[in-house]
Request: fold
Amino acid sequence: MSFTNIKTTQKQFLESYLRGTDRSLTSRQADSLYGIKNLRARITELRQSGLVVRTDKTQEGLTKYMVSARDLSGSRARMFA
Reply:
């Protein structure tokens, strides 16, 4: 699946896919499954929007990202549309 066929930004997709869902995503998965070439940059954008992003390592040593349901101010309100 590539974002050329989806009417949403990668940032919006990642927020809805990861935020409060207990899902995680590695750069390799983001690229192969969703065509997101620079996951690290999109995660930085989510952090700058005030979302709480957690990282962990996979058994292969890859960084995986998870997004808390809460933002930095403690609100569940969306930071962007």
